[in-house]
Every structure is written in structure tokens, then in C-alpha cells.
Specification:
Blueprint (H helix, E strand, L loop, with lengths): L13 E3 L8 H16 L7 E4 L1 H10 L6 H16 L2 E2 L5 E2 L1 E7 L9 E5 L5 H8 L4 H20 L3 H15 L9 H19 L7 H15 L3 H10 L7 E7 L10 E8 L6 E9 L3 H5 L6 E2 L3 H4 L1 H18 L3 E8 L2 E9 L4 H13 L5 H6 L3 H7 L3 E2 L7 E4 L1 E4 L2 E7 L2 H9 L4 E5 L7 H6 L2 E4 L7 H9 L2 E4 L5 E3 L4 E4 L2 E4 L3 E5 L4 E4 L4 E2 L2 H7 L10 H16 L3 E5 L3 H9 L5 E5 L9 H9 L3 H25 L4 E5 L12 H13 L5 H13 L10 H7 L3 H18 L5 E6 L5 H19 L7 E6 L2 H5 L1 H7 L2 E4 L1 H9 L6 H11 L16 H15 L4 E4 L7 H10 L3 E4 L4 H19 L2
Bound molecules: phosphoenolpyruvate and magnesium ion (MG).
């Protein structure tokens, strides 16, 4: 039944579960939308209603509940009371409700829930009577309300309640809260009330409606709690969505041994394997499972405990999976043998499970391959390419927990989030070890390599959050006796203290003392061609192969690589690179050759310069031969040298000090003084904006000519060996067409001279990495056969942020203020830098139809940026070898998305 609402023009802030559906996540949050969906599917959902995210947004904007909300709550509450045949606050037979947050995107444990709202000194006895004289249950429910309400709504420190509970257990001589009887719990309620009034200066509110209103506001406020803000930043969730609030009639899992609560997955969220996965805890309320307060039993054991509920649950699970066409996770409660569904959603999963499940669903005919592409992403693929532990090692396996989030993590043990953050800031790798984690540990979890807990199952806070972050996690390792205060772990007679190194395997749950060597992932071995999908025993490899093959068949964007050695080129080719989009030649001038470059830059006579160039030519040629060989038949964009000068000259200050010291000692310093004065002459305040790129080529005669000659000679040499070299010579840092024309005129002469009848074709193009180049792209295209966007410099110069300095200095503040959600050096700034790219692409192609366009900045391997480059019509992206598969996948996904949206 739907509540009758006043016919006014005011906004509708509340939806009964029967009024919503799963597509209303923006308004009802994920939890509310799915409760509505399950209600409409006829599943056993306790009745309730959802207060919308719009109400939350209005509350957060003004600091007060919006007009009309209180009346709407009254209307819906009355309807709920009618439906349940109970009244909130009725001393004889009270209706109790849970108040649960639920934002559009799941933020596990980040926001607040209060259970048993509506209980007070009078109704606690009514509740006991209604529960068949179960006083213990009623007083336990009441103490939970005071605890949750106190902590959540009134900011009473949670530990105070926990200490009082520990104290009650100690007095009883037990460690199990189930041993506390009604009298103990009544005493605990008194203790809790005292704690409450000590911290709040008032009595615990007895008026149920006041409890409800204050709790709703507290849930709204929890949207802006520090940990929620941090989580959103980490997960790139927009800051202004707000949370919905679900008010649900209470059902009780703590009514005795025939009651309980649990969490279930329709497939294994860690591996994707089909089966029944979940945890069950008898005689408990939901929070006990998620918090890992008592150890749960595997869901299968429910079959023995309550076969009827178990069978019903399995039936609902398969129905939900069919309905959502995906892995679902579920929270349920059994109240005296009656099953209730408290939540479902499309479940979070590890990267491996995402691929495996997508492929399984294709096999099962539930989704097609285009849809499978939507179900995975490049960030997940990147995670799967992380190394894992080498099977042949001798480190001691000290314990085994539950592999909750895969990966291989090695680091020093720390026991607090703060210490994890501190050591990580010093560049240390750490493993955060806790008995269980809670949302306050989030900064430490982000800073750590991996997370290890001694309690809690696959659905504990540690497990859920770690999986969401793609961080290695082993939980529930109950052989570990973790003592956070004394900073030590006792395990099988051994003591591990802070700073000791451990290795944890998030797939198997194994925990080793010391550092275990790591080896490449199966997925990397597959990309390397060492493992064929047919031979692989791991279903993951077959799933990756299938989805990648589809992405490759679909995508329009080509994927090249950034490589400047033969080895990198070869690896990238194995990973599917379709050419080199950026060969940075300055990298070939480091090491032994640095001296030659120094001589070239500092040469004062024509003879010195020519000698340096002549020495460099054969070295360069050999470099290119190696790369062209590896890339036989594929295009190779070679960028002419672009070093910020300071990288090639001895540091000025060091040189000055050496000269001064040598002079003092009376040594002959004539040579060093000459070098010093030359370095002084060339010294720049802003080398990144100085004599780099094309400017260097125009200033140092013969430098670019030598490189062009080396490139073309190498290509001709390869052609003579029967290979096909396709060089594309790229001029860096061009801002004006005249720069390019000058370089091009000289290059064309050399090309004509060297190519002869070899059949080698050479293109000449430019990077677009200076904003002026983007804005004059029409002119520049007249002289360029291709453009490649250098988005690192384009971002640097577009924003005016020094790419070398900026990240540590002030980006944190920009992120905090939400000026951007992620560094623009990591993911392309679509509105600003992206606009420059769009203009350059359009004007370049208008001037030269068919102009080849690529991108070779770091953004080429960033999943989100790849979608932008697809949309803007580039021909290819180029990225580091390890990112090539990621870009291939994302290019396929971008195509699937644009085809999907065209046909909609
Ligand atoms: C760029 O600026 O994006 C680029 C690829 O060049 P580099 O990073 O070498 O300056
Ligand atoms: Mg650049």
C-alpha cells in the first residue's frame, strides 16, 4: 500500500518500496532502488520506504531538513505502521525500524546505519513480551540502539561502549557476547545510558520520532564524514550526489538459535567460480557479520541449520542473478525460521572474477560479447598484470587466512593506519595488520601494499574495501594473535613485531615470514605468448583471451607503444602493439653517450661539433636498426631529440663547487673553468620551457640532420635485409609552422639523398604539445603528414603546471577542493586540454584531409582518456608496453559504447 500524500506542489522526497525500481539509483540510492526492485519481484523484503538523495542534497545545502519532509515521513510512517499492524513507540507492541544509508554508488561501511529505532524504556518490555518473553533479546536490541545511536548520531566515542561491553563479559567470565543474559544486558543498557549522557549532556531520547528524525539527519551528515569524502576521492565518486535513507521495518536475526543473519554471493567474488559463497552467523544482527566481530560459518552450513530457509535463499539467489544478469550479493536475515531479504546489488568483485564471470555469462547465453566488454575495464586488466608470488621459494608459511583480494604484497608490518601512512610517505612498502579494520583505517589501507586481518570473512570490512581498491588482502587469519597496542603478532610460537617483513598472497590466503620473490602473472604470460589460452588451466586466461579478441575485432583506435629499445619494442609487439608511436631518442643519449652529447652541446668550434656528431651517427643508426627490425612492417615514429638541457649538462652548482675547491688546492682548473662558463652560459631558470625540442634542433647545426640520416640509413639497411621499416620522423615542441618548415626542408634533402631506390617511405610530422600549435593546427598541418599529441607537455603548458614539481606541492589541495577529481597528468582534462586536442584535430584535418592523428603522452594508456581519444577521432593511442593491452581493451569498450549509444 502506498501512503496517501498531501496534494501539494512540494517535492516528493519519499518513495515506498513498492513505488521504486532498480533504475532509480540516482534518486533512491543503490540500496533503496534494489529493495524496491526485490519488493516488486515479490521477494520477502520487510516493508519500508526510502528518503531520496534529493532530500539529502537539500539538507546538506541548507543544514536543515527541507520543507515538507517531516510531513512526508509522518505519512509514510503511518502507512508502514498500518501495514505492520504495530505503532512506533507502542509500549505493548512497538514497531522498530532500521535506518540505513544508501548512496548511488556503494560505499561499504563509509556511512551510517542505526538499528532498532523506536525502542525506549517502556517499549523494551513490550518487545520482550512480543518475542515470547525473550527478555535477553529485547535488552540486547536496546543496548545496540543506544550504542549505534550514540556513536552515529551524537558522536559518542564508540570505544566507550565497547569497553563497557568487554567489562560486562569480563564480569561474567566470558568472551562471547551470547553468554550475557537479560540481567547483564539490562545492566549494560544502564551503563550505556550513563556513557550517553556523560558525552551529550542529555538523557537518551525516549521519543521514538525524535530518534528517527535525528538518525535521518545523521545519515545525511555522514555523506560528508572524512572517511566518506576520502573514499569518494579514491573511487572517483562525485561529491554532490548525497545519500538516500532507507527506513525499514526491523526483522531480527538475534531472536535465538533459529534466527541469524548472513551475506551471500551468487558466484565467488574473488575468482568468479560458480557455487555458493557466503557467511552466516546465527543469533546475530547484520552488523556483526560485516564488522567481523564473531567468526561466521560458511553459508553451506545453513543447510543443516535451517534447510527450508537455505533452499528458499538458493532459489532467490538464482532468480536475482537471472533478473540482474550478473553476480549479485545479498544480505539476509532469518527471523525464527522466516527468511527476509535486506539488500541486494550487483556485487563488487575482483578483477579476475570480473573477466571470468563476464565470459561465463556469455557462455550461459545471458549476455553477449559487447555486454561482456562493459562488464570489465582496463583498470582491472592492469591489476591482473601485476606479478604474483613465485611458487619455488623457501620462505616459511606461518599461517593461512582467507584470500579476500588477490595479488602478492610484500612489506613491513605496521599496526595502525597512521604508521602505514607515515612509512609509505617515506617510500616504504608496508602491510597493515589489524584484528579487523573499520572505516577509520581507510587512509592506512590506501597507503599499504596489502592488508592482513585476523578476523572476519570475505565480506568483512577489510575484504570489501580492499577488493574495491584492488589491494591485496588476506583476512580472517585466526592463527594470528594480533596485539595492536604492543605492536606484535604471536603466531605459532613466533613473534612478529613492527618492521618485520611479511608476504601475503591475496589469492590463496597464505602468509609468509620474510620476502617472497614475485613472478609475472598468468595474464602477462598469455600476452607474452608463453601460455596459449587452450593450454591454460586458469579460466582467467581463457576469459581474457575471449574478451580481448572481441575488443580487438571491434575497436577503431589503433594501439601503438612508446618504446626506445629493441627489447621494449619486442615486448610491446607481443602485447599487441601495432607500431611505435613515440621513440624518445634522447633516451639513447644517456649512459656512456652522455659525454658525446655534452661535447656536442658545448662545442664552440665547427670541428668539435662535427666530431661529436660523427661519433653519434653510427650509434644512433644501430639503435634504429634494432627497433625497425623488431617492428618489421609496422610504423615507427621516431621523435627527434627533446631533452630539457639540464638533463645533459653537469649540474651547475656542483661544477662551481668542484672548481672552487680545486682552485683552492692550487690545481690547474683551466679545462673545468671553460666547462663551467659554458654551462653557466646555457643555464636556464625554466629548462622545461627552454632550449628543448625543435629549438635545440634549430640552434645546434647538424644535430637533427644527423638523426634524420641515422633513421633513414637504418631503414634502408633493414630494407636491404628484406624487412619493411616505416619510419615517421616527428619534430617535438613545435609552436609555429615555420619551425617545422625549417626542419622539414633540411630533412627532405637528406631523405631524398639516402633513400635512393630502397623503396623506403618516410613521413614527416610533428608533436602537438604547445598550446599555440594546437591553436594554429590548420597552418601546421600544411607542413605535417601527421600529428601526435604530446599530452604531457600540453597539460603542463595548458594548465601552467610544472610537470616535475606540481604533484607533491599543491595537487592534494586541488583534489581536496574538488578542482579536479584526478591529476590532469594522469587522466586527460577533457574540458581544457581536451578542447585544444579537439580544435587541433578538426582544424588539422580541415587543412589536410586524412591527416594521421595520434597521442603519445601518458594519457594514451589511461582507460578514461582512451574513450576521449576515440570520441575525438584519433587514429591511434600510444602508451608504454604494459599498458598496450589496457588500451586495446578500452578502445574496444569505447567502440562498443559509441555503437551502443548510436543505436539507442
Ligand atoms: C608529451 O609531452 O606528452 C610527450 C610525449 O613528450 P615528453 O613526455 O617526452 O615530453
Ligand atoms: Mg613532450
Amino acid at each position: 500500500m502506498v501512503a496517501t500524500r498531501k496534494a501539494t506542489a512540494e517535492s516528493k522526497y519519499i518513495y515506498d518500496f513498492a513505488e521504486g525500481n532498480k533504475d532509480l539509483r540516482d534518486l533512491l540510492g543503490g540500496k533503496g532502488a534494489n529493495l524496491a526492485e526485490m519488493t516488486n519481484l515479490g521477494l520477502p523484503v520487510p516493508p519500508g520506504f526510502t528518503i531520496t538523495t534529493e532530500a539529502c542534497q537539500a539538507y546538506l545545502a541548507t543544514g536543515a531538513a527541507p520543507d515538507g519532509l517531516a510531513d512526508q515521513i509522518t505519512g509514510y510512517l503511518t502507512a508502514l505502521e498500518d501495514k505492520m499492524g504495530k505503532r512506533l513507540g507502542d509500549p505493548a507492541d512497538p514497531l522498530l525500524v532500521s535506518v540505513r544509508s544508501g548512496a548511488k554508488f556503494s560505499m561499504p561501511g563509509m556511512m551510517e546505519t542505526v538499528l532498532n529505532v523506536g525502542l525506549n524504556d517502556a517499549s523494551v518490555t513490550g518487545l520482550a513480551a512480543q518475542a515470547g518473553g525473550n527478555d535477553r533479546f529485547a535488552w540486547d536490541s536496546y543496548r545496540r540502539l543506544i550504542q549505534m545511536f550514540g556513536k552515529t548520531v551524537c558522536e559518542v566515542p564508540g570505544e566507550e561502549f565497547e569497553h563497557a561491553l568487554d567489562e560486562a563479559k569480563r564480569a561474567k567470565g566470558t568472551t562471547n557476547d551470547l553468554d550475557l543474559d537479560a540481567d547483564d544486558l539490562r545492566g549494560l543498557v544502564d551503563a550505556y545510558k550513563k556513557i550517553f549522557s556523560k558525552h551529550t549532556g542529555r538523557e537518551f531520547p525516549q521519543e521514538p520520532r525524535e530518534q528517527l528524525d535525528l538518525t535521518v539527519n545523521a545519515v545525511f551528515d555522514s555523506w560528508n564524514a572524512d572517511r566518506a569524502v576520502l573514499y569518494r576521492r579514491q573511487e572517483r565518486i562525485p561529491t554532490d550526489l548525497g545519500t538516500a535513507v532507507n527506513v525499514v521495518a526491523m526483522v531480527f536475526g538475534n531472536l535465538g538459535p533459529d534466527s541469524g543473519t548472513g551475506v551471500a554471493f551468487t558466484r565467488d567474488p574473488a575468482s568468479g567460480a560458480q557455487g555458493i559463497y557466503g557467511d552466516y552467523l546465527a543469533n546475530a544482527q547484520g552488523e556483526d557479520v560485516v564488522a567481523g566481530i564473531r567468526n561466521t560459518v560458511p553459508l553451506q552450513q545453513l543447510e543443516e541449520l535451517d534447510k527450508r530457509s537455505y533452499d528458499e535463499l538458493l532459489g532467490i539467489m538464482s532468480r536475482l542473478e537471472e533478473h540482474y544478469r550478473d553476480l549479485c550479493d545479498i544480505e539476509f536475515t532469518i527471523e525464527r525460521g522466516k527468511l527476509w531479504m535486506l539488500q541486494t546489488r550487483v556485487g563488487k568483485r575482483t578483477a579476475a572474477a570480473a573477466f571470468v564471470i563476464a565470459a561465463q555469462l556469455v557462455d550461459e547465453g545471458i549476455i553477449d560479447l559487447d555486454e561482456a566488454l562493459h562488464r570489465v575495464n582496463g583498470a582491472q586488466l592492469a591489476q591482473l598484470m601485476f606479478p604474483r608470488f613465485d611458487g619455488d621459494h623457501t620462505q616459511e608459511l606461518v599461517a593461512r587466512g582467507i584470500g579476500a583480494s588477490p595479488g602478492a604484497a610484500v612489506g613491513k608490518v605496521v599496526f595502525t593506519g597512521a604508521r602505514a601512512v607515515e612509512l609509505a610517505a617515506q617510500g616504504e612498502q608496508v602491510i597493515l595488520v589489524r584484528r579487523e579494520t573499520n572505516p577509520d583505517d581507510l587512509p592506512g589501507m590506501i597507503a599499504a601494499q596489502g592488508i592482513l586481518t585476523s578476523r572476519g570473512g570475505k565480506t568483512s570490512h577489510a575484504a570489501v574495501v580492499a577488493r574495491g581498491m584492488g589491494k591485496t588482502c588476506v583476512c580472517g587469519a585466526d592463527d594470528l594473535d594480533v596485539n595492536v597496542r604492543e605492536k606484535r603478532i604471536l603466531v605459532r610460537g613466533q613473534t612478529v613485531t613492527e618492521g618485520d617483513v611479511v608476504s601475503i598472497d591475496g589469492t590463496t590466503g597464505n602468509i609468509y615470514l620474510g620476502e617472497v620473490p614475485v613472478c609475472p602473472s598468468e595474464v602477462v604470460r598469455y600476452f607474452e605468448g608463453e601460455l596459449s589460452p587452450q593450454e591454460a588451466t586458469d579460466p582467467l586466461v581463457a576469459a581474457v583471451h575471449r574478451i580481448m579478441t572481441h575488443a580487438d575485432g571491434l575497436r577503431r583506435l589503433r594501439v601503438r607503444t612508446n618504446a626506445d629499445t629493441g627489447a621494449d619494442a619486442a615486448r610491446a609487439r607481443r602485447f599487441g602493439a601495432e607500431g611505435i608511436g613515440l621513440c624518445r631518442t634522447e633516451h639513447m643519449f644517456l649512459g656512456d653517450r652522455r659525454e658525446l652529447v655534452e661535447k656536442l652541446i658545448l662545442a664552440r668550434t665547427e670541428a668539435d661539433r662535427s666530431a661529436a656528431l660523427a661519433a653519434l651517427l653510427p650509434l644512433q643508426r644501430a639503435d634504429f636498426v634494432e627497433i625497425f627490425r623488431e617492428m618489421d612492417g609496422l610504423p615507427v615514429t621516431v621523435r627527434l631529440i627533446d631533452p630539457p638541457l639540464h638533463e645533459f649538462l653537469p649540474p651547475l652548482e656542483e661544477l662551481a663547487v668542484n672548481v672552487a675547491v680545486a682552485q683552492e688546492r692550487g690545481e690547474d682548473v683551466a679545462k673545468e673553468e671553460a666547462l663551467l662558463s659554458a654551462v653557466r652560459r646555457m643555464h636556464e631558470q625554466n629548462p622545461m620551457l627552454g632550449l628543448r625540442g625543435v629549438r635545440l634542433g634549430l640552434v645546434i647545426p647538424g644535430l637533427f640532420a644527423m638523426q634524420v640520416r641515422a633513421i633513414v640509413e637504418a631503414a634502408v639497411e633493414c630494407a636491404r635485409d628484406g624487412r619493411v621499416a616505416k619510419p615517421e620522423i616527428m619534430v617535438p615542441l613545435v609552436g609555429a609552422v615555420q619551425e617545422l618548415e625549417t626542419v622539414r626542408a633540411e630533412a627532405e634533402k637528406i631523405i631524398a639523398e639516402v633513400v635512393g631506390d630502397s623503396g623506403v617511405e618516410v613521413l614527416i610530422g610533428t608533436m602537438i604539445e604547445v598550446p599555440r600549435a594546437a591553436l594554429t593546427a590548420g597552418q601546421i598541418a600544411e607542413a605535417a603528414q601527421f600529428f601526435s599529441f604530446g599530452t604531457n607537455d600540453l597539460t603542463q603548458m595548458g594548465w601552467g603546471f610544472s610537470r616535475d614539481d606540481v604533484e607533491g606541492a599543491f595537487f592534494w589541495r586541488y583534489l581536496e577542493l574538488g578542482i579536479f577529481g584526478i591529476s590532469p597528468f594522469e587522466s586527460i582534462d577533457v574540458d581544457g586540454v581536451g578542447r585544444l586536442i579537439r580544435i587541433a584535430a578538426q582544424e588539422g584535418r580541415a587543412a589536410r584531409p586524412g591527416l594521421k592523428l595520434g597521442i603519445c603522452g601518458e594519457h594514451g594508456g589511461d582507460p578514461e582518456s582512451v574513450h576521449f581519444f576515440h570520441e575525438v577521432g584519433l587514429d591511434y593511442v600510444s602508451c608504454s608496453p604494459f599498458r598496450v593491452p589496457v588500451a586495446r581493451l578500452e578502445a574496444g569498450r569505447a567502440m562498443a559504447e559509441s555503437v551502443g549509444s548510436d543505436s539507442r
